[in-house]
Amino acid sequence: xxxxxxxxxxxxxxxxxxxxxxxxxxxxxxxxxxxxxxxxxxxxxxxxxxxxxxxxxxxxxxxxxxxxxxxxxxxxxxxxxxxxxxxxxxxxxxxxxxxxxxxxxxxxxxxxxxxxxxxxxxxxxxxxxxxxxxxxxxxxxxxxxxxxxxxxxxxxxxxxxxxxxxxxxxxxxxxxxxxxxxxxxxxxxxxxxxxxxxxxxxxxxxxxxxxxxxxxxxxxxxxxxxxxxxxxxxxxxxxxxxxxxxxxxxxxxxxxxxxxxxxxxxxxxxxxxxxxxxxxxxxxxxxxxxxxxxxxxxxxxxxxxxxxxxxxxxxxxxxxxxxxxxxxxxxxxxxxxxxxxxxxxxxxxxxxxxxxxxxxxxxxxxxxxxxxxxxxxxxxxxxxxxxxxxxxxxxxxxxxxxxxxxxxxxxxxxxxxxxxxxxxxxxxxxxxxxxxxxxxxxxxxxxx
Length: 448
Hints:
With 448 residues, the chain is an alpha/beta fold.
């Protein structure tokens, strides 16, 4: 598969990194020579310095024979232009990163006619992610598949958890009436994500990911030693596009929302737009202002300004004032893995979320969905089992399934089924699979 990525920023780099594991024929185009040099030194892809809107340059990289063009520069207009030109030059499919939410929900303009097959908004995806995190408040990471039939839930194990120091098998035996599968463990001080087996042990401060059907979510709280937190009062710091979208989504779900914005004109505009949100003009870094706005009565604090450090520090302040749930938006991907270490519940990066969402278009056709977990360098896939696929020939424990991957559950005819060793997959099943990058191609082959 030949793929051309226009833009070597965070989204483009993460996409190129994912593709480099699979020996795809990947080209990355950007003006910035330093970014391209960094990619050359770290990834097995081909780089080209220049303007991706240049017809000559696109022809040089063979746009006419390309399967996919990913326009993910920082500029929405540039991405549209690249997509239109690329389509006219013969690329099979185009995906453009956009910022205007109207484009995603409009029914008037058919963008495919102009050459844009798919559009993706990092801000919109980040707002959805925040809403999901607040709805599952005791977990710091959550991904829903098939509208929540199956869910991947992440949390840090505290000293109250009854599964501490137990093996995965012992925990399963102890809580045999609860349907869950442990799919990943991220341990402090260990870079490699642990794909657990029966003899793997849960330790204090482990970041653990469970795959759980919707009917078992409530039963998972006693296992992790936490109580369900009913979040209703939310304070949002920053009236950015993410802040605006998040406030709108939360108000639709009847959350009580306060939004603090330090730019007066923007605050006034937001107050006009967001009728159900209390918009406050002021600097959210001001402790007196936070106290005046009753931060101690907030259930959740969401920091989405354009400054990562401000977001992190303000969340730490909110935690110190007793706020139960904190979410900070960060631009630097290096921060993503340190959220539990510094005491913030969840750090999210909109570009990382966007790259993972785009990546499912790159996968082979049997992949229905793909999600990135915040604290691990791995992916969760939803595969549709193809007729006569290798995974249908034997029960799971007899398959040569790589140690770097695990099946977290199966959806059959809309119902959640647990995928333990004696389970056999059937054609048409939808399987939730957690997979480290080095095993993706092997797993894909099994599902073919």
